[in-house]
Amino acid sequence: MSGTQDPNEPSQTPPPHNEPPASPPPPQAAPESASTDAAGSDDRNLAMLTHLSGLLFSVVMPLVVWLINKDNSAKAYLNEQAKEALNFQITIMIAFVVSFILTFVIIGALLMPLVGLANLILCIVAAVKTANGENFRYPFTLRLIS
Length: 146
Fold this sequence. Notes:
Layout: H1 34-38, H2 41-57, H3 60-69, H4 76-102, H5 107-131
Protein name: DUF4870 domain-containing protein
Region (Disordered): 1-40
Keywords: Membrane, Transmembrane, Transmembrane helix
């Protein structure tokens, strides 16, 4: 055998099929958490802004958002986050008042910046969590509005 194949001999390789390749299965949507299902994009964005507004407007914005949405069962996620932000801002106001009173014995001058820093950090963390559709609960918060 010289390495060339006689054209009259049958080929050793099977003939190619003219069938199109199988199409891949359609992509599956990733399952979402229950809080993301319940909260639409608008609710998550408004919840994020409600938490961030505590830095500038204290209790005003969380109170307004909560009062507008407290009777709307479709806005349960937004309502819960507005109550959480409102409770936290009330706690921060109480902490600032106590710190102001304690400035007369010097310790309040140290506490006031710490309360402000805690407000800044926790509001930002809450905004990031709620933007992702997660529930957020502030630590060390008096739950006055339930």
